[in-house]
Structure formats: structure tokens, C-alpha cells
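Practice problem 4.
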């Protein structure tokens, strides 16, 4: 019997007002139904907002160090449940167990970082230009934060948003991606068990175009944090702009790894295999372009196809699997379409380019699998070089030197991550300065962010905010400036100062 899950609204697990549900399926075996989850409507969201207001009233007055202690407990519970949640996540989302373990670990790291921030949340005291007067700033909670998240990091990305938002004293409404509602459910269970007051968190499942949209459009939700595709982010941005909401957007990428003639090629090979085919290429930071110096192009390509051709495709729960399935049939179709586009544009398929054939034992028959694919002869400006595919497809481009490689890297609308393999320190520093991305790795692939550093992109990847690290706390708090004049007289700034040069 398939389990039926509920929303968490107003301090209780409740059925949706619509009475409607959707199925959550294992992408490695579509006959495996994980559960039925609420297809909520605007009424559910309305109740969640009314409750979150009460939650905010209570939580915003709780001292920040105490809020931090709750998050410390959240981190401990995630440590205890790491394996259980990782397995559930692999079943739901498809990526291999080592990666879902890493996903949970990122949530743990984010919780422990947030916990210590409860004893900082620094404001500033600065000198006033007038005597007997103090000038300072401190951070206030804002209100209800609406959190809308994608499928590819079912736990880590929600925690990047939720933990800093909570630490800063806000209440949160969490709208997870439709493909990963079970992991969201497990995360909210942990928060409640850790002692978070129940009305401070609301979990509302459902479609982005219904619940997500209603959340964005609601006037009582002043903060929206969204991670997902650039197209969805653009429409959310337009609404939030009109409503003067505070908005953080983390969107698509078209990340490149550059390998120069002096690079350690074996190291670069390990890097590109992990960057391009880890998470089946479904990372915002995935390596989807490989820019090779012309002097090592042919040799490296040979090394790459030999190794990539041996990657073991399979269900992520199988310990031998290196590459799992795509998230759903639509994603697989999109990958197949891009491979066709590449061929029409004149690129060649050096490896893969198809749904796996001749699968022994039928392990791949009922999953959304696609072979790791390498496209060669890709020229700057081709669609497969410019557009996000979000699958196991790597476009290889030849460049004559570092200057050209940097130009090719920068000539896309996205700007999330970039990577350079070289032994030339001068070239490395030039690239670090000139690559138009929010993140650059030297001698490491385009993936591998750590929770305590700022994360985000430039151009159409983001809107200037960062998640992770210390900067995210600015997003979830409002700065208030305070002046205290204890001189007993009216002192006019800029006018009654003692010295004018
Ligand atoms: P998506 O845009 O389809 O969905 C993301 C979330 O938005 C989901 O919860 C969805 O229900 C919701 N949504 C959809 N339409 C909405 C609307 N009109 N109003 C409000 N919410 C709506 O993205 P996805 O397919 O889940 O994730 C893949 C995308 O996310 C890729 O483009 C990837 O690059 C990007 N991503 C970016 C980062 C980053 O940090 N830059 C990280 C991970 C993923």
C-alpha cells in the first residue's frame, strides 16, 4: 500500500484542502512509488502564512544564541540520520549514495555554521561625527521567508536557505520541488524533533505554477529565495520587482573546464569525469563544456572517451554504480534532443549519445538512464555550447591558448563556475581575475563548493546575492541603524560639526 504524506501547516501534519495528490517515483525504477504527496492549493498556502505570522512573532523574539542551539540540535540529528536520509534521497532522486551522503553532509555543515552564527550576527558600532553621540547598526529579522527549491540537491539547497533564515529569526514556508518531496518531509521532521517551535516552519507541497507562484505573489511574504532554472527565476524576479520583495535567485549554469598544455592530464581527467558525469550532469555547477588547448586536444580526448566509456550506469543504491538515472522522462528527452541538435550543428558524438542498449539483467529498463556522452568538434556559439542541458553531456571545444579559452568561457549568458587545469601560476592568476563566474577552481573541477564560503553566480545565473558562508546572513536580516545622542542639545549632522576643511 502506497504511503500518503501530508503538508505541515499550523503546527500539524495535515491533508491538502484540495484532496488531491501526486505520486513520487524512483527515477531508477519507475514502478517503485515512494509515496503520494499533497497537490496543495492556494487555501493551504493561506493557512500556512497565517500560522507563520504567529511563528514569526514568537521566534523573532527568541535570542539568536538560543535559535543557534536549536540549529545545533538539527545538525546532530542529521548526523544520526545521515545514512537513512541518504538512502531515501537516492531512491527519490537517483544520484549515487556517496553523493546523497555528501548532500546530507552539506546540510550538517550548514547547520553547525548557522549554530555558531547565533553568537555573532555582528552589528557595528562606529564613531559619530558629533560629540556625546553613538552611532551603530544591528540586524533585525524580516518576517516570513518563502523558500522554493529544485530537485538536484534535495536536502542541501533547502538547508542553505532555511538555516540562515531561521537563525536570523524569520519564519519559513518551504515549497520543495515536486520530484523530491520525501526528502523535504524528512528534513522538516528533523527540525521539529530538534525543538523548533512548530509554527516557525511550514511545509507546503505542490506544483510550482500553483503553490510556488502563490507564495511569490503573496503580499505577506516579504522574502523569497529561489533556486532553479533561469526561466522560472526570471518570472519570479518580475513579480518580486513589482512587489518590492527581497529576492535571492540562484539559477542555471553552463560551466567550463579549461585544460592547458602544461596541465597534469591524469588529474584533469579525474576532474572532468567527476565534474561532467557526477549527479548525471544534473548540477548547476556541472562541467558541461571542456575547453582543451589544441596541443593536448587529441590526446586528452582519447583518454577521456576511454575512461568515460567505462563508467558504470545503474541505480544509485547499487554500490557499484558510478552514474545514476536522470530525474524523469522529460529530462531524458531534453538530453536526447540536444544530442540531435549537436549533430545537426556539425558536432560529432565521440561517446554515448543514446539510451543504454542491450542492458544485461534489465537493471536499466525501468529507469530514466542515458549514456555518458561526449560531443566533439563543438564550436563556440553552437546551441550545445551555449544552453544548459542538465544531463550527462559534455561539449568539447578546442582553443589555441589561455586567452581564447577565457574568451570562450565568458561568452555565454551564465556565470556560475569555471575551472582551469594548469601548472602556470601566472596563467592561473590571470584566469582567476578574468573569468566571469561567481566561482573559479584551479586544478579542481567546476563542482565542489564548501558550505562556509559564499556560493552563487554572475550574469543570468544570479541576481547578486550569495548563499552559504557569511554573506547569506545579510540577505535574511534587515540592517537597522541607530543614533543615540546623549549631549542634551540639538546637534545637526553635517552642520554642527567642529571642523570644516
Ligand atoms: P525549476 O525551475 O523547474 O523548479 C525549481 C522550483 O521552482 C521547483 O520547486 C518548482 O516547483 C518551482 N517553480 C516552478 N515554476 C514556478 C513558478 N512559476 N513560481 C514559483 N515557483 C515555481 O528547476 P529544477 O528543474 O527543479 O532544477 C534545475 C535548475 O535549477 C537548473 O537550471 C539548475 O541549474 C538550477 N540550479 C541552480 C543552482 C544554483 O545555485 N545556481 C543550484 C541547483 C540548481
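Answer key:
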Amino acid at each position: 500500500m502506497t504511503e500518503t504524506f501530508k503538508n505541515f501547516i499550523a503546527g500539524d501534519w495535515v491533508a491538502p484542502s484540495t484532496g488531491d495528490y501526486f505520486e513520487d517515483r524512483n527515477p531508477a525504477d519507475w514502478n517503485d512509488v515512494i509515496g503520494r504527496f499533497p497537490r496543495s492549493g492556494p487555501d493551504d498556502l493561506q493557512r500556512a502564512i497565517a500560522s507563520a505570522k504567529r511563528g514569526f512573532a514568537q521566534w523573532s523574539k527568541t535570542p539568536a544564541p538560543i535559535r543557534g542551539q536549536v540549529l545545533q540540535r538539527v545538525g546532530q540529528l542529521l548526523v544520526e540520520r545521515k545514512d537513512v536520509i541518504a538512502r531515501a534521497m537516492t531512491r527519490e532522486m537517483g544520484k549515487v549514495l556517496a553523493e546523497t551522503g555528501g548532500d546530507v553532509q552539506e546540510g550538517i555543515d550548514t547547520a553547525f555554521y548557522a549554530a555558531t552564527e547565533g553568537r555573532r550576527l555582528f552589528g557595528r558600532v562606529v564613531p559619530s561625527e558629533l560629540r556625546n553621540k553613538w552611532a551603530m547598526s544591528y540586524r533585525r529579522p524580516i518576517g516570513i521567508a518563502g523558500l522554493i527549491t529544485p530537485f538536484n540537491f534535495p536536502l542541501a539547497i533547502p538547508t542553505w536557505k532555511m538555516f540562515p533564515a531561521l537563525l536570523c529569526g524569520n519564519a519559513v514556508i518551504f515549497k520543495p520541488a515536486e520530484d523530491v518531496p520525501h526528502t523535504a518531509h524528512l528534513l522538516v521532521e528533523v527540525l521539529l524533533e530538534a525543538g523548533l517551535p512548530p509554527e516557525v516552519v511550514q511545509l507546503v507541497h505542490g506544483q510550482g505554477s500553483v503553490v510556488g507562484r502563490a507564495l511569490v505573489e503573496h503580499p505577506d511574504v516579504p522574502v523569497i529565495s529561489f533556486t532553479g532554472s533561469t526561466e522560472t527565476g526570471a518570472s519570479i524576479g518580475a513579480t518580486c520587482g513589482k512587489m518590492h520583495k527581497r529576492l535571492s535567485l540562484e539559477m542555471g549554469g553552463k560551466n567550463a573546464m579549461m585544460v592547458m598544455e602544461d596541465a597534469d592530464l591524469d588529474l584533469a581527467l579525474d576532474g572532468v569525469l567527476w565534474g561532467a558525469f557526477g549527479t548525471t550532469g544534473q548540477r548547476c555547477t556541472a562541467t558541461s563544456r571542456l575547453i582543451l588547448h589544441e596541443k593536448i586536444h587529441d590526446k586528452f580526448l582519447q583518454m577521456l572517451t576511454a575512461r568515460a566509456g567505462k563508467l558504470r550506469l545503474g541505480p544509485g543504491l547499487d554500490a557499484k554504480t558510478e552514474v545514476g538515472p536522470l530525474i524523469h522522462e522529460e529530462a531524458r528527452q531534453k538530453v536526447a534532443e540536444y544530442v540531435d541538435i549537436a549533430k545537426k550543428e556539425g558536432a560529432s558524438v565521440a561517446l554515448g549519445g543514446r539510451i543504454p542498449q542491450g542492458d544485461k539483467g534489465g537493471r536499466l529498463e525501468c529507469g530514466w538512464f542515458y549514456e555518458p556522452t561526449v560531443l566533439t568538434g563543438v564550436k563556440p556559439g553552437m546551441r550545445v555550447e551555449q544552453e544548459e542541458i542538465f544531463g550527462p553531456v559534455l561539449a568539447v571545444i578546442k582553443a589555441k591558448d589561455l586567452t581564447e579559452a577565457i574568451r570562450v568561457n565568458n561568452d555565454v549568458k551564465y556565470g556560475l563556475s569555471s575551472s582551469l587545469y594548469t601548472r602556470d601560476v601566472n596563467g592561473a592568476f590571470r584566469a582567476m581575475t578574468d573569468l566571469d563566474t561567481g566561482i573559479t577552481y584551479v586544478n579542481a573541477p567546476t563542482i565542489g563548493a564548501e558550505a562556509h564560503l559564499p556560493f552563487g553566480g554572475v550574469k543570468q545565473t544570479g541576481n547578486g546575492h550569495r548563499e552559504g558562508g557569511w554573506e547569506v546572513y545579510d540577505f535574511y536580516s534587515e540592517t537597522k541603524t541607530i543614533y543615540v545622542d546623549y549631549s542634551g542639545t540639538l546637534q545637526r549632522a553635517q552642520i554642527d560639526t567642529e571642523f570644516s576643511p
